[in-house]
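Standup, Tuesday
Yesterday: got the pipeline producing structure tokens again.
Today: sanity-check two examples.
Blockers: none.

Example 1:
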Amino acid sequence: MANNSRVRTYQSINRQLDERYQRLLKLERTPFLLTHVPMGTGPSSSNSSSSSGGISSECYKQAREEFDKRYASPAVFQLVYRDFQISRPLGRGAFGSVKEVKCVRDPIPDYLQVTNSADSTVKSQRIALKIINKKSAHKMKQEEHVVNEKRILQALNFPFIIRFYFSFKDNANLYIGLELIEGGEMFRHLRDCERFDEKKAKFYASQIVLALEYLHLLGIVYRDLKPENLLIDRYGYVKMCDFGFAKKIDRGKAYTLCGTPEFLAPEIILGRGYNMGVDYWALGVLIYEMNAGNSPFWDADQQKIYHKIINAKFRPRSFFSDNLIDVIKGLLQKDLTKRLGLMFNGISDIKKHAWFRDIDWLQIFLKKLRAPWVPDIRANNFPDAEDEEPARSSINLFEKEFQDF
């Protein structure tokens, strides 16, 4: 959610890839077979009472029905910026900022109320208010991504995905109210630790696997999995955030060049269309980075990064276990017919992999396990950021472009 050194927008990536096409013409391209096995297909779906990991298939069926209903008819909120009191800035992004706020409207809307256990009084939830400047979003041609982010987020409901509270807009800005995740970004914690041990990395990875399983069930490709977009809650569990590049494609393909360079799958760089498999590739990069402290494809020369990705060239660290190396190689597989998550058994091949053998998926889903690290929520776990008032306008800027927000 905060600003960081990685490239985050389509335009930034596009500028860095200006020279890629001539280089790619010199490479020997592998003809990709784009396949996607939705959750519930293959032999693992033969048991109708549960999906792999002991989570009831009825749970996922109900989740799909609820999502479809909310996605088709997004809620409308009657709120304005002055309904909120600013507590502190949390960070800045490419075309907006995030602030911690609380609602001071009287009465407080039901969906923002929380009851004080000590005296039973009602107060406002602590909220992370994402403020998107219309002019900046339009300048960077991000209108579709911004509208998609709001529409998808407001329909999601999963333990490891940030909770949406509300959205509204005014003449100059768009606003999204999200739950406040006090532990801050995984990126910052990983930087402080340099790297995680395998047990800790596996704990986080298991939650991301379940979140991707949920998203892919709904037909959504995430496209921006990285430590900066993973927050740690007060109990030490992961919350996936920043759905600016998420898109509902169902069984189709996407062609837009977007994401973060070091996490891009080969099929995105080659521009031949892609599906949910890009998220499994990014999962492989993330698992490597959590365990090693750096990307498997990092290079000072951006073009060399893309060359390494296209050829799936990386070197496991000497301290990686055999099972860790195997799961990373299975996810960072440029042949889509052999990539974990895309074969006949779908995501079950990831969940049943030897590296995840000791994971109790149901206990993870229910958040019953003690986290290996719990953040100190009394500390400021967000980078220092300057507070500034949102832009104002006497006319409704880009009304047509953001009419569906």
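Example 2:
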Amino acid sequence: MKMDLTDTTSSKINNALVQGRRAIGTPAVGMVLTLVIVTDEEHAYDALKAANDASREHPSRKLVVIKRVSRSPRDRAKARLDAEVRVGTSAGTGETVVLRLYGDVIDHAQSVVLPLLLPDAPVVVWWPVGSPVDPHEDPLGALGQRRVTDAYAAEDPVKELSARSAHYTPGDTDLAWARITPWRSMLAAALDQQHADVVSAEVEGEGYNPSAELLALWLADRLGVPVRRTVSDGPGLTAVRLETKAGPVVLGRPDGSLATLSMPGQPDRAVALQRRETAELLAEELRRLDPDDIYQSALKYGVDRLNHAPAAKAPATEAAPAPADAEAPAAEAPGSEEKAAPAASAAPAKKAGGGKKAAGK
């Protein structure tokens, strides 16, 4: 059942929700939370579709806030609220209210949303695109116990992570963090089987993918080892390499669906690591309403502390220190210049060969 209300108020919208529930024969409210979706007209359909799919696991009242920008100064001066109320099968599991704000009411969106929140139920605010720099200080974000953003939709995702770290408040989270949950679970299980100290790590993924940075931050924070972030052609995350004293542990996913786990002394294993849809990510974030301490710790580690470099340049960094090491014997024995010169020329070639062999692994 769908009802359109033009130039309406929050009180009339509440009355329409009650009438809709009575009309379909379900007067009781069986929803567990209120999900506030702040988006624009372009992304409203996809965001609402993902929320409806997630509502099968979390029955909720979905409030979609769309701020419409009028073209003329006369229209921008007029405050108007239009609403589309959906109940029953057209609203997924729960209820849906699409709010379109015009004019001055755009600056007071929280006053429109507040009377529509479910009583005594948690509130989650989600920005599919265009999230504020400080979600907690946003008027709509202040209404929620949890605030969900998506750094992947930002113009500069890596810079967005730095802003998230600087303005983090308990209750903040990001869908880029939910995207790496299967990777973190698989790597943790692999290290439980491989009893060896990790000495370094490398995360490989496409550029401008904040999930790769977050995974590298998590490894650096949890393991306390240097982590290298390299760029690949994707899709998404493509590989994680953990160098241990017993040998490398590699989790690679070149095609975005099936991964291969390689560990010393064990045969390679195929692992299902399919890239997940937004509805699955949102449903995961709605399962917990308490602050995510692990996300906070990884985010606060700092993106600038990671070693960023293209994957193709990795062998060159190993071969570079070789000439300095080769000149050391010459400095210690000034009288043997003729013997030192061949050693200096032979050592870099031997070092470079070792770098190529390592890159081939």
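Quick observation on example 2: DSSP finds 14 helices and 15 strands in the chain. Residues 136 and 142 are 5 Å apart (CA to CA).
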